Amino acid sequence: MNDKSASKSAGHDLDGNATRERILLEAARLFRQHGYAATTLREVADAAGVKAGSIYYHFESKEQILGEVLDKGIKIVYETVRARIDALPKDAPWRDRIAAGIEGHLWGMLHHGDFTSANMRIYGQIPESAKAKHRVVRREYADYWDQLLQSALAAGELRADASTTIIRLFVIGALNWTVEWYNPERGSFQDFARQITAIIFDGILVHEKSLGTQ
Amino acid sequence: MNDKSASKSAGHDLDGNATRERILLEAARLFRQHGYAATTLREVADAAGVKAGSIYYHFESKEQILGEVLDKGIKIVYETVRARIDALPKDAPWRDRIAAGIEGHLWGMLHHGDFTSANMRIYGQIPESAKAKHRVVRREYADYWDQLLQSALAAGELRADASTTIIRLFVIGALNWTVEWYNPERGSFQDFARQITAIIFDGILVHEKSLGTQ
DNA sequence: GTCTATAAACTGATAGAC
DNA sequence: GTCTATCAGTTTATAGAC
């Protein structure tokens, strides 16, 4: 809570932790843009305003940077989704919880696009060692949605002629991909989230009488 | 129609065109697995059973291989979709045409996963020069779906409270992503396509009376 | 905490033998 | 049509000055 600009006495450093964060942010942006292997540490260093050698003061290796970028991509989304759903009344219907989850997933994703898009684009392209570490947090988030959907199914609010696993994979996959084509110039985020939720809930066809969102 | 194993008289070649196809196939597989920049031509050559230098007899550059892999990814899907829709009766309702399009898109994609997944994964990560060339065939396929959806909208079969552009981007994006998680061991392809189509048409919630698919 | 300099390995692409 | 050999440039990571 006190003065954060209290600089060290030695050399020409200002704030080591800020540099670390800048490296992570620029790494996410470049991983998203060019892929993991294609991104050189020199590029990351240039973008973060330091020299390549300096990166190794903050990180042990390129793969450690990758690990932090990947985890951050999921965690941002996961935390936003939980916050949205926890804010609902205890007796809220499952459809409202799912709607809150969709809105939270979209919000977290589209407001931290470099981390989430990097995660989505490069996860399939990284060494198995990096995948293995990251799988834990991925599995957690998937389980969270599975429980949500199974509860909705048990309450009779979810369609029963498709497996909840396929529903989860389809919905999360569709949401994830929006970060690749979402264009804020086409309208407000709220309106965008409303349209996506309507399509996921009621489909793309016209129905005589919809009991989904209205 | 005659003997295809008629080999040339010189050196130790068997069939030049088959080698070319093998290089393309292995390149697609490796681009999908590790990304474009991360894949070395030595790896491609090894996988295709030739030496690195030999690639340059069949292709001018790494970027030319990329171009052919990308185009093939879209064209396979586009041609399957058109074949499915053209096979319908002239007076088929738009919902049937869209269903045929979805089934064709899934089929083309899941049966040529290396080309379509490579396309999807690396398109956002390649040099602008490669993107520009590839954009033409992408735009064509997008236009095809836009016309399909706008016709369905004009006929009153498509929901009108979301733009056809958003519907197209959402549906195609969701379909594309299935190649990342589709597991043939979970059931037949026909059953998979049926579930996906049902979700896209009628949504994930339960409706009192659905007029979509039955 | 950041720098410069450098090691050791790998990259796309070319030249020319067979 | 495929090979070997090689060029010029780039890569991650380390060592040590400041």
TrEMBL record, chains A, B:
Domain of life: Bacteria
DNA-binding region, residue range(s): 40-59
Domain HTH tetR-type, chain residue ranges per copy: 17-77
PROSITE patterns cross-referenced by the UniProt entry: HTH_TETR_2
Keyword flag Aminoacyl-tRNA synthetase: no
GO molecular function: DNA-binding transcription factor activity; transcription cis-regulatory region binding
Matching SUPFAM superfamilies: Homeodomain-like, Tetracyclin repressor-like, C-terminal domain
Record flagged with keyword DNA-binding: yes
InterPro entries, per database record: Homeodomain-like_sf (IPR009057), HTH-type_TetR-like_transc_reg (IPR050109), HTH_TetR (IPR001647), KstR2_TetR_C (IPR041490), Tet_transcr_reg_TetR-rel_C_sf (IPR036271)
UniProt keyword list: DNA-binding, Repressor, Transcription, Transcription regulation
Protein name: TetR family transcriptional regulator
Organism of this sequence: Extensimonas vulgaris
